[in-house]
Amino acid sequence: MSYADEHDIERLLRAVPARSELAKKLKLRAVSEAIKAGWTQRQIAERVGVEQPEISRLAKAARLTPEVCERGPREVLLEYAAGLIDHTAMMDELEHWDYTFGRLDPTGETYLRGTWDQIEHAGDLISDADYERLFELTASRRVASFTQMFQHE
């Protein structure tokens, strides 16, 4: 087996969990939008091909944590890993992302994640070189956010 074949096989294998995670996110988003549009859970279940209790669970998740339905940097990374976008498109979107940075809640006890945390916790979805590029591009905003977070103590 040649290196090119091994690289292609590795990319195919890495696409499987990325596509699975993307499918879950897209299903949650679609259910949320259908609920907002007034569809019944039974109607949604028929269209999606699942039982109504599954739709109820997804609707509850979307209601309790609406941020999971929003597009974020992780979704961009998953699209690249799944082979839906190329490297240039991924980096262009991530380089121009209006990142939010984690902060402490008003009590100072709980860390509230920002969209930058999706880059920080991307694992093998992002190369070291791509991470370093994004890290450099966001340096001043991260410092400002960090400084602001600890001025409230």
Kindly name the structural category: mainly alpha
Sheet with most strands? 2 strands, antiparallel
Q: Work out the radius of gyration.
A: 19 Å
Number of helices: 8
Strand content: under 5%
Molecular shape:
flat
Query: Order of strands across the widest beta sheet?
Result: 1-2
Distance between the termini: 58 Å
Summed over residues and divided by their number, the pLDDT gives a mean of 88
**Count of strand segments:** 2
Approximate helicity band: 55-70%
Q: What is the N-to-C order of secondary-structure elements (H for helix, E for strand)?
A: HHHHHEEHHH
Overview of this structure, please?
The structure is a single chain. α1 packs across α4, α2 (41-48) packs across α3 (52-64) and α4 runs antiparallel to α5. It is built from eight helices and two strands; from the N terminus they run αααααββααα. The chain has helices at 3-36, 41-48, 52-64, 73-81, 87-95, 116-120, 128-137, 139-151; strands at residues 103-104, 111-112. The chain has 153 residues and is mostly helical. The mean pLDDT is 88. The chain has a two-stranded antiparallel sheet.
